[in-house]
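Input record, target 12 of the design panel.
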């Protein structure tokens, strides 16, 4: 009887020992090779300079004050040097009081005259006052433009003039601790403060929104964060303005930015651009001009713009970047709600200069009953406003700009 061969079902499938060894080495080599490649890339990358994608930066438009001429150009320069002189004399900024701020004219020349008092316990000797003021002001005034005299009760009085025009009077007045603090007047004058040039920096906008004061904010059209910032302003109950770009005298060297209204535009082109700008920023209750020293002198163009604003029940605040602005006359003819800026807070971006301008703004408000100041989103402006807002509120009533326009 034949013997049946036993069949092993594993025969022919049992792996060869050498093949198994080679496969094991291959499986181990692949991850090791990958690890070596990764390490090589890491070392290569570590030794090379990092070439990351550069962050996106937006060029924030600069603001424009009108180019001062004649006596007023010297006044702005003297303001700064008087601040320096008082600081050198050790005068604390709270001791400086503006009695009068008024506009003076002589033919085509126009300038601001300021009458101030320095109220301190012990005034420095007149000789020291004269020496410090001479040192600070001499580069800016012609010979004979500074007079230091003794007034009533031996008060030291500094009088400054440019080309025979009085520009500043500073009287050092001795005070005692026993002098009563004057009671605040009934019916405080009103002050509105507008901060321009928002739309390019969300973090800065949020910092200004945290200030404890009634401020208005003006947002540039076609800026990267216009909608977010305008919405945040609106949610806090503050006024949102459109910061409308307009042609300056130095255009195109000075560019007011996207959406600018240019004097050479035909009426339809001008109005189409205006409507596009108005639609760009939500929640606006009014408009003020960004730059515009040339366009605001054009009464015809401004009347075209104001007709649209009146139809939309928007007011206009003239930033007054030109002393020859036709905005007030055009607004009056159309019965448009209108107001005009009295003081730029940060024309000079220095702490004492900004405090000087805040005092000037308060003084103008007390004389006129109301006043509008304009500032810009500079860190130094934020810092000084944070410090000064409590003092401002003790002297005037801070109100939304929408309440101050006529």
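The sequence produced for target 12 reads:
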């Amino acid at each position: 009887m034949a013997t049946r061969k036993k069949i092993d079902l594993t025969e022919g499938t049992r792996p060869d020992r050498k093949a198994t060894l080679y496969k094991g080495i291959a499986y181990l080599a692949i991850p090791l090779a990958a690890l070596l490649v990764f390490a090589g890339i890491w070392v290569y990358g570590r030794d090379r300079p990092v070439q990351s994608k550069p962050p996106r930066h937006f060029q924030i438009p600069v603001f424009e004050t009108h180019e001062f001429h004649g006596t007023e150009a010297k006044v702005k320069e003297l303001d700064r040097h008087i601040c320096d002189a008082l600081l050198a004399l050790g005068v604390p900024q709270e001791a400086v009081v503006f009695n009068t701020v008024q506009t003076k004219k002589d033919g085509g020349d126009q300038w601001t005259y300021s009458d101030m008092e320095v109220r301190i316990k012990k005034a420095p000797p007149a000789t020291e006052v004269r020496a410090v003021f001479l040192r600070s002001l001499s580069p800016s005034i012609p010979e004979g433009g500074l007079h230091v005299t003794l007034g009533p009760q031996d008060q030291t009085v500094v009088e400054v003039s440019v080309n025979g025009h009085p520009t500043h009077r500073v009287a050092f007045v001795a005070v005692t601790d026993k002098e009563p603090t004057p009671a605040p007047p009934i019916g405080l004058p009103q002050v509105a403060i507008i901060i321009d040039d928002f739309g390019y920096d969300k973090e800065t906008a949020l910092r200004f929104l945290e200030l404890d004061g009634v401020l208005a904010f003006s947002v540039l059209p076609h800026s990267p964060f216009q909608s977010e910032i305008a919405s945040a302003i609106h949610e806090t109950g503050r006024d949102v303005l459109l910061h409308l770009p307009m042609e300056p005298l130095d255009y195109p060297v000075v560019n007011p930015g996207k959406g600018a209204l240019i004097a050479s535009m035909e009426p339809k082109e001008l109005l189409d651009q205006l409507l596009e700008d108005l639609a760009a920023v939500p929640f606006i209750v009014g408009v003020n001009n960004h730059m515009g020293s040339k366009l605001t002198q054009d009464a015809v163009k401004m009347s075209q713009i104001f007709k649209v604003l009146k139809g939309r029940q928007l007011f206009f605040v003239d930033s007054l970047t030109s002393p020859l602005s036709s905005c007030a006359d055009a607004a009056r003819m159309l019965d448009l709600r209108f107001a005009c800026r009295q003081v730029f807070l940060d024309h000079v971006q220095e702490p004492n200069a900004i405090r000087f301008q805040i005092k000037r703004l308060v003084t103008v408000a007390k004389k006129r009953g109301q006043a509008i100041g304009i500032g810009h989103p500079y860190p130094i402006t934020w810092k000084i406003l944070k410090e000064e807002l409590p003092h401002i509120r003790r002297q005037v009533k801070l109100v939304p700009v929408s309440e101050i326009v006529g």
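The chain is about 40% helix and 20% strand.
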